[in-house]
Amino acid sequence: MTKYFAQDTPRAGLERMMMSVPGFQRRGGGTMILSRFRYKPEDVACRYCLHYRRRSCQIPICPYIAERLKSGAIGYRDLILECFGHIPHAGLRKRIQAVEHWDGPDQVILRTVFVQLKSRFADRAWDGTPPGYLAALYLLASKERLWQPALSALSHDFIDFNRIALHGFTAQDYPVFYSARRLYDLKPPMEVEDLAHRNLVSDMDFLNIIYATLIARHGKAVMDAGKEAQNGLCNPSGAEQRPAPGIWADYDSIPHSQGGIRPHDRTAGAIGNRRHAPSGLPSG
């Protein structure tokens, strides 16, 4: 059956008009204009946010991390200070201070994750993916010895860690695998003493665990903003948002009332404020 009940009849034109949207005109020639809007730091100021009342943010985690990262209003260093700054462990502080630039998650790892998932679960919408799932995938994909055994344990939104064979792992692989499993369950990746130990966790694995913790806390926004930064869309001026040395020196000067960067519970051995984070998720 055609979409019109009457064709080639005196009433066909009337019926066609009745089925059309009022005032509708067929698309003709012309130029399509795409939005090239880029956020600026002043566009995402906290005072414009609906959650900003009484000169402070009223929610535990800022829901606009992606926009603020892309605009350059905050950087990954700010997120790391928010998540780890409350931990009174000198070794961890020194190790974070030793990193000159926090450029975001490794895009090679992200590409490995999404290419594989897109080929296997093409119909999946990833915007609503649990952050713990994405954080675990990021860590598993950071090492080939972990990624290949993990492929058979992946489903749309579930990772069966019991199906991942551990034979062939090296001593450097176990901390990453353990952290992936912990973050998947929305728990801190590992004990602070172990995370600060260079002989146990290599420098590259340390960076990946830190970024995976941010993904578990803020979700896909951290990954998307990292991709924008790699493409040169974040902070177009290229200016450094904060001086590189002394990451912990300026912690007390950060405005705690803006954008979720606020004081934390000083609980040794725990990453984040557990009052607001479900199941021990690293929080601010």
What does this structure look like?
This protein is mostly helical. The chain has one domain. It is built from eleven helices and two strands. A hairpin with a 2-residue loop joins strand 1 and strand 2. Helix 2 packs parallel to helix 11. It starts with 11 loop residues before the first helix and ends in a 54-residue tail after the last helix. The relative contact order is 0.17.
Number of helices: 11
Helix content: 25-40%
What best-fitting shape do the alpha-carbon axes yield? Answer: extended
> What's the helix-strand series?
HEEHHHHHHHHHH
- Biggest sheet, in brief? 2 strands, antiparallel
Mind telling me the C-alpha Rg? 24 Å
Strand content: under 5%
Q: What's the oligomerization state?
A: single chain
What structural class do helix, strand and pairing data support? mainly alpha
Amino- and carboxy-terminal Cα gap: 60 Å
Question: Any low-confidence stretches, pLDDT <50, length ≥5?
Answer: 229-284
Tally the beta strands.
2
Number of domains: 1
Biggest sheet strand line-up: 1-2
Mean pLDDT: 73
